[in-house]
Amino acid sequence: MYPKALWKLFNKQTRFVLGAYWFLTLLATPYMYWLVGRFDTDNSFEFHHSLDSLTGNLTLGAVIALACIVMGYARNNRYNEFTLTLPYSRKTIFFSYWSFGTFHIMLATSMSYILTYITIQSTYLHTYMASGYLWKAWSGYLLFTVAIYSLALFVGTFTGGFVSQFIITLFLLILPGVFVVTFDELLRIHTVRDFSLLQYVSPAEPYSLSMLTNTFEMFIEVKNSVIVYEYYLPNWSIHTLLSPLLYIILSLGLGLFLFSRSKSENNGKIIIFERFQPYFFGVATILIMILGGFIIPLFLPFVQPERLYSFYLGAFITGILCFFILRRIMNKKLTWLK
Amino acid sequence: MLNVRNINKTIEDKKVLHDISFSLTAGTITGLIGRNGTGKTTILKTIAGILDPTSGDITFNNLSIQKHPSEKVNFVYVSDSTQFLNSYTPNEIAKLYISIYPTFDFELFKSLMSRFQLPLKKIRSYSKGMKAQLAIILAFSSRVSLVLLDEPTNGLDPIVKRQILQFIVEEVAVHNVAVLISTHHLNEIEQIADQVILLRDGKVDLVASIEDAKERYVKVQAVFKNELPERLTLQENITVLGKIGRVYTLLINDSISQTYALIEAEHPLLLEEIPMTLEDIFVILLGGDDYVS
């Protein structure tokens, strides 16, 4: 059975964030190109476009919010209880979450690039822009955005509400970077040597979803109708595109598995699977402790932040606070209903 | 039609449902009664597919609902929370139901909206009682075989409550719908239900028709010269429901005629049988009437 009813339901549920996403997507690229392209530049201009902008990041935020509204917020306000009573299997429901969001991402992104293409063709930009870049940017951006949406949905299968789904998704997106930087700092503070681990892992960066925010970029500098400087990022390879594909396949597979076993009785909690809770509690406490070890000493007047004992003092204070606060929060059910 | 077989449910290491079994047949109204926190809503949510049973099975027309969720097209669950309706207008929500339930009768929906005088404006502006009415109208307009109602009359004024109960009885009689109502408004259930399922601490304590349940018990008023004779107070099947002056209200459970004879042997000044209510049975089985409204 084609779940038309589910799409109708999700459409109603997400109409505001969906509207925001469409608006931002159409604003992020075509409008920016149009703004630049409409000026008479005497054949000398600089054109820079990057997705690492406020609009670009907000668009990405809207994609994650879309997944969090359709799953996490629905758990908070018991909207999902209505969905689960409908004559569809949980696999169909989860797949509909995915197909609904993916459909909008594909449509909005495609429309955005068609408009951009028309803008480029109708202005002086078409003389200077490298042919094929737009197609590469469209296909890459589309894949990465769907991968991020899929990841956010997967997170929604084990989290109990909007806030935890959103935060954990963001955390997973930046996890590789945060992990390397934190581990690097930990080593440095213990050995007084700079290992600069980032340089060893930077080749892996293209395989991380976080690349989306900082590498879709182009720059053209033209003087007297001659291109004097230009660059286009990213430089695609088939491996680069395999990364989001893998994220999509894994997120869908694991998401379908977990959503079929969803524990609706724990809706509103940070983690809905009771057996995952101790692991989450342990990992979150350790990570927050390490972070606290670096941050807390900066605010303590009687310690020197760069010293090892300061790190452990900060970690200890954060650990104690985290232990009690997190333990309390983890047993709470956050719901928004009358 | 619906068979619930040996359902168990554990939430946060606490067993909330113990081996629940019962059946529902077409054209009957079943009341699911019990004190607060005994698992009434958990049972309804498990049947509706919101919660998974830890063990046991629920079948509809001999098909497991968990394995064949498409069978849920034959029933509608009306939750005690109607918040999801807020963003719709009545016509929008009816159209959504049409796309879910192929049997949805839009003409019936319109006539019921008019019968219960519900306006066609945004549901957000409805009162709690109006939302409850709308949810019930949507359920019955879906023309399904089974309707699950969780505390359906909460928030309804007495007149609307009577209209809704009357409407449910009509639907069951005319369209052979099965209705399972979770409630602790015993007087309402007594008026309309064919059978009751009484829950105690997550276990089924009694499944019986209202008549059978009442036949198992007799309520009498008795006046004695002095206090209630000690011989009677020692009888395990006699419960003192109340005492006003020297007038005792007693509930006799099982061995009715022998116990009646026993009371007569104490030469009461007055002994008369008075009508039993479901609430009396509820009180004796679950102990205390502080949760009964």
Automatic annotation (TrEMBL), chain A:
The keyword Ubl conjugation does not apply. Keywords: Membrane, Transmembrane, Transmembrane helix. The chain crosses the membrane at residues 16-34, 54-74, 95-118, 138-155, 162-183, 236-259, 279-303, 309-326. This is Acetoin ABC transporter permease. It comes from Fictibacillus macauensis ZFHKF-1.
Automatic annotation (TrEMBL), chain B:
Coiled coil: none annotated. InterPro entries: AAA+_ATPase, ABC_transporter-like_ATP-bd, P-loop_NTPase. SUPFAM superfamilies: P-loop containing nucleoside triphosphate hydrolases. Keywords: ATP-binding, Nucleotide-binding. Residues 2-226 form the ABC transporter domain. GO terms for molecular function: ATP binding; ATP hydrolysis activity. Gene3D superfamilies: P-loop containing nucleotide triphosphate hydrolases. This is ABC transporter ATP-binding protein. It comes from Fictibacillus macauensis ZFHKF-1. The lineage of its organism: Bacteria, Bacillati, Bacillota, Bacilli, Bacillales.
